[in-house]
Design goal:
This is tRNA (Adenine22-N1)-methyltransferase. It is a single chain. This protein has 227 residues and is of the alpha/beta class. The protein folds into 2 domains: 158 residues, 3-Layer(aba) Sandwich (Rossmann fold); 45 residues. The protein is built from 9 helices and 7 strands; from the N terminus they run H-E-H-E-H-E-E-H-E-H-E-E-H-H-H-H. The protein starts with a helix and ends with a helix. The structure holds S-adenosylmethionine. S-adenosylmethionine binds next to strand 2 and strand 4.
């Protein structure tokens, strides 16, 4: 059984896609996608030996060696041109790591028309990257599982315009204003307010003053959306 988080990621994979799941760990996502008949073929990439071996083992156990190729490789280097990958999934890492993986081998993205990204933190780094690299947010989701809140961003090629608040919080998620979204951002605001409070007693060095201004700015941005 797939986690709610990965099930949501899976829900954005187009039927018949050829998927590369980068940082696949146990290859749960590609196995699920093939079992459900959503896709016929996938590459599971892992840069760390242990998870790579878990992926190999899982794929073998499930009898999916003909459909899923597991490769030990750094990021997009797991993709070969003969794979004809058209969809990439990267889940369960920080937004900055996801962006660094996408930026390291841009030529691997040439055949790809959809990116399904699930950053554990710093989703805004992904939206900023998308904006600057001619990818457009076509869908977003936010889910809560085991007291953690996860965002999922689906990109296809195209241009978009985003405001500062939309980069931070997600244009589609802002429109939806789901309960989980409101919970996430009211938690963030509360946290920032606590940090601000703790800074009140700090010596007002330029760094501290800058940090306070940044926090005040973020709080104002978010409160305008959630209130
Ligand atoms: N994608 C799975 C999920 O969402 O449940 C596993 C997430 S796990 C927390 C992150 C995985 O990414 C780890 O197994 C790690 O080895 C792998 N990883 C980190 N950097 C990577 C890179 N540059 N290339 C491939 N895999 C990477």
């Amino acid at each position: 059984n797939l986690s709610k988080r990965l099930e949501k990621v899976a829900s954005f994979v187009p039927k018949g896609a050829i998927v590369a799941d980068i940082g696949s760990d146990h290859a749960y996502l590609p196995c699920y996608l093939v079992h459900k008949g959503i896709i016929q073929k996938a590459v599971a990439g892992e840069v760390v030996k242990g998870p790579y071996q878990s992926a190999l083992k899982k794929v073998k156990e499930e009898g999916l060696e003909n459909q899923i190729t597991v490769r030990l490789a750094d990021g997009l280097e797991a993709i070969e041109s003969s794979d004809h990958v058209d969809t990439i999934t990267i889940a369960g890492m920080g937004g900055s790591l996801i962006v660094s993986i996408l930026e390291k081998n841009p030529e691997k993205l040439e055949t790809v028309n959809r990116l399904i990204l699930q950053p554990n933190i710093h989703a805004r780094v992904i939206r900023q990257w998308a904006l600057e690299n001619k990818w457009k947010i076509i869908e977003e989701a936010i889910v809560e599982e085991d007291q953690k809140i996860y965002e999922i961003i689906v990109l296809e090629r195209g241009n978009m315009e985003l405001t500062e608040a939309e980069i931070l919080m997600g244009n589609i998620l802002i429109q939806e204003k789901s309960e989980v979204f409101l919970k996430k951002w009211s938690n963030e605001v509360n946290h920032w307010k606590k940090v601000l409070k703790s800074l009140e007693y700090a010596e007002p060095t330029p760094e501290i003053v800058g940090k306070r201004q940044e926090l005040l700015h973020q709080i104002a941005l978010v409160e305008e959306v959630i209130h």
